[in-house]
Amino acid sequence: MIFFSFPKSRLCIFITFVFVLTSQIYPDEFKVGFAELSITPELIDEWEDINNDAQFDPDIDKWTDVNGNNQFDAVWMAGFQNKRAAQGVKDDLMAVTAVIDDGLNRIGIISADTIGLMRKFVLSVREDVPTEWGLDYIMVHATHNHEGPDTQGLWGPGFLKSGVDEVYMEQLKTAFIHSLKVAIDNLEPAEMSLALIPTNPLTPIKDKRRPIVIDDDIRAILFSRPDGSIIGSLINFGIHVELVWDKNLELTADVAGYLRKGLSEGIYYNDQLIRAGLGGTTLWLTGNIGGLMTSGPTDPIYDPILKKTLTKPSHAKARTYGYSLANSVIDAFKAGDFKQSPKPSITVNSTEIELGIENFMLSLGTLLGVIDTDLKFSLMPPFIRYLSEVAFIQIGDASITGVPGELYPEIAVGGIENPIGADYDITPQEVPHLRSQFPDKLNLMVNLANDAIGYIIPKSEWDEDAPWIYGENEETYGEVVSLGPNTALVIHENLIKLIEESKTK
Questions:
Q1: Which residues, at least 6 apart from 456, have a Cβ–Cβ distance to it below 8 Å?
Q2: Looking at the domain assignment, is residue 112 inside a domain?
Q3: DSSP per residue over 32-50, as a string?
Q4: CA 82 – CA 76 distance, rounded (Å)
Q5: 297 in a structural domain
Q6: Which residues 6+ apart lie within 8 Å of 317 measured at CB?
Q7: Which of 319, 324, 148, 114 is nearest to 237 (CA)?
Q8: b/e burial code for range 294-306 (CB count within 10 A of at least 16 → b)
Q9: In a domain? residue 121
């Protein structure tokens, strides 16, 4: 038998090399931590909507100067018309945060019940997070809640008048950072399991713009303790959070809030528990909602508990929809549909992208400071340019794609068309479709991630000038809240690059 001998110094170097190599292959213990904090703004002044138009008009409506400062202090609600001032709180708006750590990399995901958060604000959050917390990447996501405060500047007391309260935005940033610290403090060993859950017939989604393409499955990640109890979950689903609709004057988390409550705490009617939840903390991530993926104000939703069909916008309708989503996840869990992702490790790829602002009204809004963001200027068109971000995060057998606006689902799943009437006579440009390129078993596509740039429309479907696509009699909704026809191309190209780069790591 032959024995190899090494000088002690070389042996130490060899052992160190092996340790470093294996630590990269087999990271330390996988951990997660969650936090959930209220971000409900304070309501000060009271008002009465005399003509029931859900718009505050000082010449018509009555109001009470509660703090005696001789001005109307409003929380301007986002997502529909201007002048919608909140009158009360139905349920708290929340910031839900997850911190995920594989021993080598640590990421934070913040999901907030707001309409959208601009990248300038996101960068300010990241800059104020202490480096000693060890966060390698932070994703800040807005649920796209249409029943919360204006956090972008588009829904204030009048045309080109921002509804953003800067004091509230500072409070929001403080809450986000605090939630990260709480989640870090809550880190504990975890196991991860995944499920792709087909949409329940009780939770229909309408695509309000042709071609009719819907990316409507629920994508779920569960984090559990060794004893099987749930620490928390990430739930990805594509629908506009707006089921209470435009005449509502109460702050609410809408359908996202009910999904979270139903899955974590259980399904309640009149304070009576109907079905137990899974426990833990639920974090909602809005999926691909471009084209206006929604349940419209008159679209019917059947409530199996009330045994009635709800057609009018209401808190009850939001509750029914959110609880139906929760039921689908609970059913999948009970059926054993969640599959474990062993030894999860984390990789992050993100990149800054430059987008031209080719929309006159959005250009005007940014130049006037109504939309608070950083701009670049060019001597060549488009003259106003905007810096945004895309991201691709892998966690074990799952990945999370960060999209900075509202992606038309056909870019994700295929089905882009070039209809008669489109402004560009071209073949589909955003190909191959994104879901065909993901290397992972489960991909969560997250819209309104790290930015809120509006609709991301396939260039071959762009329709700003008559004749209108598909023989429509009027302009289709979308272009008015999009940066321009080339936005989707840039985002698609950069996401494909990130996905390809991830395959080489």
A1: 290, 403, 405, 406, 407, 408, 411, 482, 487, 488, 491
A2: no
A3: EEEEEEE-PPPP-SEEE-T
A4: 8
A5: no
A6: 243, 244, 295, 301, 310
A7: 324
A8: bbbbeeebebeee
A9: no
Contact between residue 401 and residue 286 where contact means Cβ atoms under 8 Å apart: no
In-domain check, residue 195:
no
DSSP 3-state assignment of 222?
strand
Domain enclosing residue 441, as ranges: 346-503
Asked, as a colleague might, if the bond just before 27 is cis with ω within 30 of 0, I would say no
Backbone torsions φ then ψ of 107, nearest 5 degrees: -125, 155
Question: What is the pLDDT tens value at each position of the chain, 505 positions in all?
Answer: 333 343 444 444 443 443 433 344 445 799 999 999 999 999 999 999 999 999 999 999 999 999 999 999 999 999 999 999 999 999 999 999 999 999 999 999 999 999 999 999 999 999 999 999 999 999 999 999 999 999 999 999 998 899 999 999 999 999 999 999 999 999 999 999 999 999 888 888 999 999 999 999 999 999 999 999 999 999 999 999 999 999 999 999 999 999 999 999 999 999 999 999 999 999 999 999 999 999 999 999 999 999 999 999 999 999 999 999 999 999 999 999 999 999 899 999 999 999 999 887 787 777 777 777 877 888 778 878 899 999 999 999 999 999 999 999 999 999 999 999 999 999 999 999 999 999 999 999 999 999 999 999 999 999 999 999 999 999 988 999 999 999 999 999 999 999 999 988 7
Domain count, the chain: 1
Place of tokens 């796209």: 144
- Taking phi first (over 0 means left), then psi (-120 to 50 degrees means alpha), and beta for anything else, what does residue 388 get? beta
The continuous run of DSSP H or E covering 332 comes out as: helix 315-334
Phi-psi category of 318—alpha, beta or left, where left has phi over 0 and alpha has psi -120 to 50? Answer: alpha
Radius of gyration of the chain from its Cα atoms, rounded to whole angstroms: 24
